[in-house]
Amino acid sequence: MDKGRESIRKADNDHARTIFMSAAELSAALVAFDDHTQGQYWKEVLGARTELALTLGNATEMAMREKHWQQAFYFGPGAENIPAIEHLDANIIAENERHVEQARIANFAK
Phi and psi (nearest 5°) for 75? Predict the structure, then answer.
């Protein structure tokens, strides 16, 4: 995440998006593992869904900055529906929901 933020500071949104997408893939793999094992290792992967929401939310934002609306539209929903046990900040949830709606509107306005 730090490298993604560093790329944002350098205004390299494409590179930042790639970094966030890679981090999201790792988080998604941990979530899939948790689902596949029916929560047997939930303590070990606690936080993976939060990271998935953060990284997909950031990837969505970077895609939107570059006007890649369809990509943003597909990333966004993965950043929603995070269980309460993950303690994801309500502001992040609201921001991700706004991103999804903005991407949806922009994508279908083409």
Answer: -70, -45
HEC readout, the chain: CHHHHHHHHCCCHHHHHHHHHHHHHHHHHHHHHHHHCCCCCHHHHCCHHHHHHHHHHHHHHHHHHCCCHHHHHHHHHHHCCCCHHHCCCHHHHHHHHHHHHHHHHHHHCC
Q: Digits of tens for pLDDT over the chain (110 positions)?
A: 677 778 777 888 889 999 999 999 999 999 999 999 999 999 999 999 999 999 999 999 999 999 998 888 888 777 777 888 888 888 988 888 888 888 888 878 76
What predicted TM-score, i.e. pTM, was given to this entire model? 0.83
